[in-house]
Design a protein that fits this description.
This is DUF4436 domain-containing protein. By secondary structure, the protein is α+β, with helices and mostly antiparallel strands. It is built from 4 helices and 11 strands. The chain has 2 domains: 155 residues, Immunoglobulin-like (Sandwich), CATH 2.60.40; 90 residues. Helix content is 34%, strand content 29%. It is elongated, with a radius of gyration of 30 Å.
Length: 295
């Protein structure tokens, strides 16, 4: 009776697997170094004449962005500053007229003397960008803030109030950079915002689309081997290939701040990955149907 010899240890495959793991770890470390995943938002202050008095304090914070509609919403808080404190908390000692413009959108509010000040909400346009470039889409927003004394101010009879503007550069899922735009004066400050997705979301989106490519190639490899007769058409791979057809859309919808279907990344990756999964399933079914029945 012949004894079965033990199979030798596959050293080549072990070394290949080891180098593959090391290469993946190095690639991951390089990606973490390239993408800043721990950046913390900050505040920036803008004032054309920091020593002017009286002055009005303005605090601007982005509250939502919708690249699909090419719009972003800001909340503008107004508070009396140096030399214009009223008799009541958060109230000015004179009538004020505050105007915030962005393109064709205008938000304006009249604040009466010694009455509490509220906030304004401004809907601005996202310019010079398109969501079709997801996740590398970038946008520019222009904002103009004016403050005038009196409620009946006109271009011929303006009494500008110096502004002290603070911008919060934080918005969930996005990175914002603000800067002072050319033009204006102490009572007419123009700001420019640059908006893009945070590095963590870009990294996750690239990893997700990469996973789609790997899954699609795996589906084609399994189906090709079965269709060509190198592997038997068993039930287990058939279930996995069928599940993959429905798993890819779920993976696509799990993208951070998922864009509408049809961006460039969908055309280049998701569409072909889904077609590859369907083709792999069809080839496997054809091979299974050609298999001779038992008996």
């Amino acid at each position: 009776m012949s004894e079965t010899k033990p199979r030798p240890f596959p050293r080549r495959r072990a070394f290949a697997l080891f180098f593959l793991i090391v290469a993946a770890a190095l690639a991951y470390a390089a990606a973490l170094r390239m993408f800043d995943l721990t950046e913390i938002p900050i505040e920036r202050r803008f004032a054309k004449d920091p020593d002017a008095a009286p002055r009005l304090k303005i605090y601007i914070e982005p509250i939502s962005a919708d690249p699909a509609r090419e719009s972003i919403q800001f909340r503008v808080h107004v508070a009396p500053g140096q030399g214009m404190l009223g008799k009541r908390p958060n109230a000015a000692d004179r009538d004020l007229y505050v105007i915030v413009r962005s393109g064709d959108a205008v938000a304006q509010q009249v604040f009466r003397a010694d009455e509490p000040m509220t906030f304004l909400t401004v809907d601005a346009d996202l310019n010079e960008g398109s969501i079709a470039r997801y996740p590398f889409d970038r946008y520019v927003i222009d904002l103009r803030v004016q403050a005038l004394e009196g409620v009946d101010a006109t271009p011929e009879n303006e009494h500008p109030i110096a502004l002290d503007i603070t911008v919060w550069e934080g918005l969930l899922g996005y990175k914002i950079r603000s800067s002072l735009a050319p033009g204006g004066n102490a009572g007419d400050i123009r700001l420019r915002f640059e908006l893009r997705r945070v590095d963590a979301h870009v990294f996750f989106a690239l990893a997700t689309y990469g996973a789609m490519i790997v899954l699609a190639c795996s589906s084609l490899l399994i189906s090709f081997l079965v269709f060509l007769g190198y592997r038997k058409p068993e039930a287990a791979p058939l279930g996995a290939l069928a599940a993959l057809v429905f798993a890819l859309p779920a993976l696509r919808n799990a993208l951070p701040l998922a864009p509408p279907l049809g961006v460039w990344a969908d055309i280049l990756v998701f569409l072909w990955a889904e077609l590859a999964a369907v083709l792999g399933l069809a080839l496997f079914v054809v091979a299974w149907a050609r298999e001779k029945p038992f008996g």
